Amino acid sequence: ITVAYDKQGNPVTTEDLEVAGAMAAWMRNAINPTLCCTVEYQPCMVHAGPFANIAVGQSSIVADRIGLKMWDYHVTESGFGADIGFEKFWNVKCRISGLKPNVSVIVATIRALKMHGGGPRVRPGRPIPEEYNQENLELLEKGVENLLHHIGIVKKSGMKPVVCINAFHTDTKDEIALVRKYVEEAGARCAVSEHWLKGGDGALELADAVIDACEEEVEFDFLYPLDMPLRQRVELIAKEIYGADGVVWTPEAEEKAKRFEADPKYSDYYTMMVKTHLSLTHDPDIKGVPKGWLLPVRDILLFSGAKFLCPMTGAISLMPGTGSDPAFRRIDIDTDTGEVKGLF
């Protein structure tokens, strides 16, 4: 594991610091997934990597292999949208694991699609603007383009997408019907899920859609071969996944890329993009499906323990913090009833 570089630019590893053994001993039990359960006592394993905007953002391969041995259907999570979480699941995790998935579920909300259609910004700790609590088919129709782009990303892998509309009580029948129409016209299955209200019973339509999709043959294939040079991979991801016209490199990032490409030691390293999850672009404020833009790469990070090369795009921070008014301030226990309050 590389933790720093010396003044000559050589990597400093945990072995150099003589802490690798102690780290391994401290983390030895972490290789095993934690077995939990849902409120309806369905088994659930918690064993995941950091967020997909700054890291891999996947449930572990160990947990997946255990689940596949124990249950008829195994659901594994991939963080954020198809542009970052799914892309890494597809081209990194599946390449490492050798597992071929049957179906990918894209979770969408009416509220999020309205934002991609030009709705007002939602700020943490402040009330949600009324545009998201009232029917607005015009905003929604404009925002559906973003969902269709994510469907297209999944289809590039050869997998069958199923769109889950995570329904809120503010969603109207006409809004749900509009999304379903566009999704089905795009050749994907669509299901409305009310699990937040009805538990498992509210997700039966989604479960049926997933089971049905699992019966179809999958022609799974990666976006790029592992022997493709780093800069070509980034260019391909930017164009095919994000919808950019190309990539612009800072001199420092391009120099690093050339050095990594020239060293055969890094030929089998995986490409782990670092990008905001709030937009298809590098800019979190740009919504929808923008056209005519370039992806800026400012640096490349090396994670030698995991064999990851991580191109850094935009101004994204690797140490995200809580909002100015985090939800935990309102969460407490009612001492009279013993019930938790403030969750919703």
Topology:
Layout: E1 2-5, E2 11-13, H1 20-26, E3 34-37, E4 43-46, H2 61-70, H3 82-97, E5 103-108, H4 110-116, H5 137-156, E6 160-166, H6 173-185, E7 189-193, H7 195-198, H8 204-214, H9 230-242, E8 246-249, H10 251-262, E9 270-271, E10 294-303, E11 308-313, E12 332-333, E13 340-341
Parallel strand pairs: 5-6, 6-7, 8-10, 9-11
Antiparallel strand pairs: 1-2, 3-4, 10-11, 12-13
Structural notes for this entry:
The protein is an alpha/beta fold and 344 residues long. It folds into 4 domains: 1-28, no CATH class; 32-75 and 82-97, no CATH class; 102-219, 3-Layer(aba) Sandwich (Rossmann fold), CATH 3.40.50.300; 230-313, Formyltetrahydrofolate synthetase, domain 3. It is 33% helix and 17% strand. It contains 10 helices and 13 strands. The protein has helices at 20-26, 61-70, 82-97, 110-116, 137-156, 173-185, 195-198, 204-214, 230-242, 251-262, and strands spanning 2-5, 11-13, 34-37, 43-46, 103-108, 160-166, 189-193, 246-249, 270-271, 294-303, 308-313, 332-333, 340-341. The strands form 5 sheets. It has a 4-stranded mixed β-sheet. It has a 3-stranded parallel β-sheet with strand order 5-6-7, with helices on both faces. A hairpin with a 5-residue loop joins strand 1 (2-5) and strand 2 (11-13). Helix 3 packs parallel to helix 5, helix 4 (110-116) packs across helix 5 and helix 5 runs parallel beside helix 6. The radius of gyration is 22 Å and the shape is globular.
